[in-house]
Give the backbone structure.
Amino acid sequence: MKKFLKETELVDFSHPDIKKLASELSHNALTDEETARNCFTYVRDKINHSGDAQDNITTIKASDVLKHRTGWCYAKSILLAALLRANNIPTGFCYQRLSCSEYVKDVYCLHGLNAIYLKEFGWYRIDARANKEGVDAQFNPPIEKLAFELEEHEYDLPKILEDPLPEVVDALKKYTTYEEMTHNFPDVKPD
């Protein structure tokens, strides 16, 4: 589990703002599940989804996502990982390959979310993307309620990763505006 608790350049949970918020979110929690729920709800509800808000900034590092209070699903999953790992809750990165027709017609792209290890339930996927009409992600272990239900030609990537996919990191570093990102979402080709 150590690899799912590590700090990295992007999951920078030693940053003073991340440490402070992680502590606040776990302050009255009696269990890891309560802490995880607090962290999930905070990121889902208090951090803009850059696409929904049409924010013209692309964040990547957890501390920058928190500072600017916006991030694409990939960046929101990085902030959530930082908050959870700061609270000693093993957290990994998961992806789905979905239709991105909301932004660009006939295009598929990756959607980023997290998996966390809860003592009572084992690995449990959560999606702090941001709710809106037609999107209702919830935290209710052991029942998963992700932002999107898979449709034809969409699928879950099978692994829980310790770090964000390189394709995701590259896209977040290269495409810095709303317009650039909506035309260059990261993707992986199906097997």
User: Anything to note?
Assistant: The first strand starts at residue 48 and ends at 49. The longest helix spans residues 32-46. The helical segments are 16-26, 32-46, 50-53, 62-68, 73-86, 166-174, 178-182. The mean pLDDT is 95.
